Amino acid sequence: MALILNIETATTVCSVSLAKDGLLLSLKEQNGDYSHSENLTLFIEDVCKQANISLSQVDAIAVSKGPGSYTGLRIGVSTAKGLCYSLDKPLIAINTLQHIAMSILPKLPTPNSQLPTYLCPMLDARRMEVYCAIYNSEGNVIKETAAEIIDEHSFADILKENTVVFFGDGSAKCKETFSKNPNAIFIDDVVPSAKEMIALSEKAYNEMRFEDIAYFEPFYLKDFVAGKKKGE
User: Are residues 105 and 91 part of one domain?
Assistant: First the structure.
């Protein structure tokens, strides 16, 4: 039972929610660009004003830890850690793919077969690469988070015996490749949101699964590679 501020900045979405005892109090989010550095603190102020709550009243700060955008994750995690230090509150880290997967559970389409249904959230990486994981319909991990290069052989084994629901901004890379497989289902327009972190952060708080603020780092999954400017 807690009052938790949730922060999501792992992708183009900047999202902040405030929840009490697992129930949403307020939400502020925007999708479309990487203006997180300009928006995040303003969004935090807004959700507190909407709920008529002071930041000092929160019991914990939860942050989407990745995988995702290097810059986005740095902004979210550094902001969360700064709040934890200044307010003397615990830090909770939520796997980005996991909370995206949990958001799909109430929306799962009725499968066309009796095969088990698996969930595969995907975040766009470079070229034909995605960050992904696989969960069963109860939300349990079947395949841990990994960076995968998509080709005609991707997920072949698991698609033989299971219906797999693909979603997230990286799933578009798979549509053409898996289009002829009847066991592949795609759900469009699924993006990360801090409101979907609420159940997971509440559970983590009740189980006292807190991070070491001094040493916690985002889950980048891959080393950061800086792009070159045009003409270099």
Answer: no
